[in-house]
Amino acid sequence: MKHFLKPFTPGEDRFANIETTKAENGGPILAEALAYLECRVEQRMECGDHWLLYAIAEKGKVLHQGLTAIHHRKSGSYY
């Protein structure tokens, strides 16, 4: 979703004006999502102006069948 590619200010609600439901753990599930994962954050590390999160996927569900769209850039998975 192009909405999440734009920059946000610190503290800004990234899900404002986006239709969501809540997962069992309280996390948002996008209404248009094909699937979702519920994760538990195990560790956080500050990396300059970003945070790196290490999380454990505890639950998940496929909501709808369909083709996925991915944002694949500078991932190191190609040479």
Primary descriptors:
single chain, about 80 residues, mainly beta, two-stranded antiparallel ribbon, two-stranded antiparallel sheet, about 0% helix, oxidoreductase, Putative diflavin flavoprotein A 5, EC 1.-.-.-
Structural class of the helix and strand makeup? mainly beta
The biggest beta sheet, please? 2 strands, antiparallel
Percent range of helical residues: under 10%
Which overall shape is indicated by the principal axes computed on the Cα atoms? Answer: globular
Along the chain, the helix and strand elements come as: EEEE
What is the overall number of helices? 0
Domain Flavin reductase like: 1-67
Pfam family, one: Flavin_Reduct
Keywords: Electron transport, Oxidoreductase, Transport
InterPro entries: Flavin_Rdtase-like_dom, NADH_oxidoreductase_modular, Split_barrel_FMN-bd
Summarize the structure.
With 79 residues, the chain is mostly beta strands. The chain has no helices and four strands.
Plain-language structure description:
- The protein has a domain at 34-65.
- Helices cover 0% and strands 41% of the residues.
- The protein contains no helices and four strands.
- A hairpin with a 2-residue loop joins strand 3 and strand 4.
